[in-house]
């Protein structure tokens, strides 16, 4: 770990670290990211111990006595994401701050991913089969909820460092129509899956869950909490995003789409990994007859959210507020 820190410091030396207008400076975000990098390495070490990697002796002590729900395909997927993706995001945030660059979107992207994982892990742990035994160490997750929420709202309330001239028309209207259609289709699938997680007797829901994504019914409830996240947060956001595409000046789109795209990518990757994970129960695997359709649906959900992200940053002047300039 120390070697990595020294390497990063030598390769990307700081050009300035003072807090300026539109910049972060070394503060709470900077030092907490440094601390959370150790948490990422801890997750990597636990994964190495769980599978006997990196020369570590195989063992499951922490999973048995610390956070037992992490010794599941979903929990190990979340750990893997934190060990690799979040670690890289911490480095990028630190790099931006050390070089007087705005870490806004990287920080929001990180917050979106980690809050999504925490929602699924905590709600699943307390509502599923692991709720009968949850040791005090579970409380450590509080910091991974409180701090990302602070980061998210900190940047929501902070003016952007980039000054962009607003416009009230767009050259991407054809793409917007495609996105609106895609968001409506995505919302439909999220509603069907969300109702399935709530054990709805609605025939279409029952058919889809039993023949396409039975993991939603897994007793650990991690699959159910992920689709509920899409149902509770994803559907409303996508409907608001449609409004944002049709009306210029919706500046909130720039931040919320980053948060949402990160959550969709993180959640879907971990969720879909269950089917191919050696520890997973074959009873809840995607049926072979539905495999390609389920993969296509989940890839589509990630694709449409990230295409929306690209759309917002391809023409940010359409979404910012200010004196309008005809495009």
Automatic annotation (TrEMBL):
Membrane topology: Multi-pass membrane protein
Localization: Endomembrane system
Major subcellular site: membrane
Keyword entries, A-Z: Membrane, Repeat, Transmembrane, Transmembrane helix
A Pfam family per the record: TM_Tm6sf2
Entries under CDD domains matching the protein: TM6SF1-like
GO cellular component, one term: membrane
Domain EXPERA: 26-152, 175-309
InterPro entries, per the entry: EXPERA, TM6SF1-like, TM_Tm6sf1/2
Residues spanning the membrane: 28-46, 74-95, 107-126, 138-156, 177-198, 226-246, 258-277, 289-309
Family: Belongs to the TM6SF family.
PANTHER family assigned: EXPERA DOMAIN-CONTAINING PROTEIN, TRANSMEMBRANE SUPERFAMILY 6 MEMBER 1/2
Name the record gives this protein: Transmembrane 6 superfamily member 1-like
Species, as recorded: Ciona intestinalis
